[in-house]
Predict the 3D structure of the following.
Amino acid sequence: MFEFFYLFCTHPIMKKNTIHHLNTGLIILSCLIAFYIPFELFLFSYGILGPLHYLTEIGWLHKKNYFTKGKYDFVFLVIACVILVYWNFQPPSSKNFGWVADIILLSLLASIGLVFIKDWLYRFALFALILIFISFANNSSQYFTWIAVFLPTIIHVFIFTWLFMIYGVLKEKSLAGLISILTLIACAILLFTIQPTSLNYEVSTYVQKSYSMFSELNFRIINSFHLDNLTNITQIFTTNAGFVVMRFIAFAYTYHYLNWFSKTSVIKWHLVPKKTLIFTLIIWLFSVGLYFYDYNLGLNVLFFLSFLHVFLEFPLNIVSFAGIGKELIALGKR
């Protein structure tokens, strides 16, 4: 009987269902904590879980050749990220910061060529079309907000994570996975719809100072979706709209990290040489130490690493989008 129970629990299908159930629990847990202490939860998740996620994912992507056709295709994304980070700290004389969005969108769309096209002639043709598209996209009033602010942050941690989950469920035909997806959406909706009648929540001076680099994200979400009409960015710490949006951001980031670590047995990012694992842990502990010493110092030091993992993940995003399309087409033919 015990042998049967062991075989039942270790069966591949049961393992996957267990992971999906675990993720459902992590979604609910992240939602509950974010509901009460959103700013604190975000700072904890970003400072503790974030660096370990960046390091382990980049190592895993490297083993997968970043899901690109060429061995050194990833260099293009690294260079783009280096330029963005350099200009972030040493901005050009021009006061137009549209280049931030241009670099990000170029890297994302160019990843289509890196994933599906090997011939450089066709790649250059694609890149030319992308540059033309970006020149037209620049005319949109919301271009900078959606590409430079939302894409590497909330779209990366929530929308892309949600799409990864959909892709997995379509491949596995898993009911448990579908429950996780529905739970994620339900929690996100509840965080916006269940609004406090009064703001019984005070954000400490330390937390406000530590979160200052992210405050533009909250401010733009609130005003772009007309949740309120804020005139001062510090109002994100004192208004109901600021509280509601922060709950969603904290929830999205926390689950994004937990989702990665909960699927270790599936992704197998931990199967690296012992020296690599030790080096990763040392860098992670150093990063956590920086955040504890001075949170804003940690943000500045790890700014490149945080953006690098976003850029290097673009090809994987493209693979996932294409995979979802293929699975949906296959379902339509049945």
Observations:
- Confidence is low (pLDDT under 50) at residues 1-11.
- The CA atoms of residues 52 and 284 lie 6 Å apart.
